């Protein structure tokens, strides 16, 4: 994750000439992009609002910038044309970062999922009820289209070549799409991981901790005398 972010930052902001405030704005927006990626879900029946890093840090999804104190620069008096031009420039940088990072992130996500599945030789790369990210080039920044796998489409060789995915969007009726497997990306924490975590928690028993016998060494006469001296000074309000 860190490697892909640094690589995309170099490609996106490497030759850009930004002020300090503009750079801060870009980094805050990039942080919002990273923290809006879907990690897992609360229910396979409802994929409209996936759990993101923002939910874990702030309890909700963040889609706007935090309020920041304005820094006045008396030497710079921009016109409305200058402001509009800089705004378009910053937006184009963010869109460039979004497209590049999303592509690299989804590829890394698929590779990590394939590695996990390769350990389990009897598991398919994709299974029914898996929650996946549906590839959509026209999706706005920070928004991900999630769906639940309803049916697997197999080729003549018996391997999974695609799937029928149920996509739910807020305020719209769920629709079923047919997509090739190359356009579907399993999310970071799938239903198998959640099930395994529940099994591990159920099978874990807390063993009572045994009390350790602490053997104390007898105090030396000098230490006892020093303690008595301190107590005497405290009583006399001298310490």
Task: Describe this structure as you would to a colleague.
- This protein is α+β, with helices and mostly antiparallel strands.
- It has one domain.
- The protein contains 6 helices and 5 strands.
- It has helices at residues 2-13, 20-35, 53-58, 80-119, 191-203, 221-235; strands spanning 131-134, 146-154, 160-167, 175-180, 184-186.
- The protein has a 5-stranded antiparallel sheet.
- Strand 2 and strand 3 form a beta hairpin.
- The N and C termini lie far apart (57 Å).
- The model is unreliable at 64-71, 194-206 and 208-215 (pLDDT under 50).
Rg, Cα atoms, Å:
29 Å
How many H/I helical runs? Answer: 6
**Amino- and carboxy-terminal Cα gap:** 57 Å
Low-confidence regions: 64-71, 194-206, 208-215
Q: How many structural units, i.e. domains?
A: 1
Average pLDDT rating? 73
Beta-strand portion reads 5-15%
Shape: flat
Looking at this protein, list some descriptive labels.
239 residues; DUF5641 domain-containing protein; DUF5641; five-stranded antiparallel sheet; 43% helix
List the helices and strands and how they pair.
Layout: H1 2-13, H2 20-35, H3 53-58, H4 80-119, E1 131-134, E2 146-154, E3 160-167, E4 175-180, E5 184-186, H5 191-203, H6 221-235
Antiparallel strand pairs: 1-2, 1-5, 2-3, 3-4
Helix pairs in contact: 1-4, 2-4
Region (Disordered): 199-239
Protein name: DUF5641 domain-containing protein
Biased composition (Polar residues): 199-208
